[in-house]
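Example record

One chain of 167 residues, shown exactly as stored in the release files.
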Amino acid sequence: MNHTNKQKGKNTFMTIDEQYMDLALEEAKKAYTSGEIPIGAVILYKNNIIAAAHNLRETIPCATAHAELLAIQEACRNLHRWRLTGCTLYVTVEPCPMCAGAIVNSRLTRLVYGSSDYKAGAVESLFNIVHNKSLNHQAVVTTGVRMEECQQIMKDFFRERRKQLYK
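Predicted structure tokens for this chain:
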């Protein structure tokens, strides 16, 4: 099924994955506004959003307060179970090893991400945790959804941060 929707006045159409990545990007913008690294995540189950989160490492502060982990925790609470079989995680940036491990451990069926992370990515860039046949679960992965926007928000954030550091 490939539902489409007109995108904000443009003559292009968005797929379902692009629409949900748009919501993950909205979460990333919330992180950006609060001074957090702008990564956002949403989890979908039976065509319903059951969780949405963005990075909160600086706000809480907690090293594990990544968007993916916070969304997984919320989804587990909302479904009253730890197995997230049948769920799709949309995240703006390729998950790190910690988050990729949580994807496997929570049995998420599908992962969709926008931008690769060549410094910490654990799905395809540096490691391949979610496809590792030695583990008890593998997720179906779709990459590159809304990639340009996902990359741009990260570039903008770090450009702004560098300007603040070198004033």
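Notes: The helical segments are 16-33, 67-79, 97-105, 147-165.
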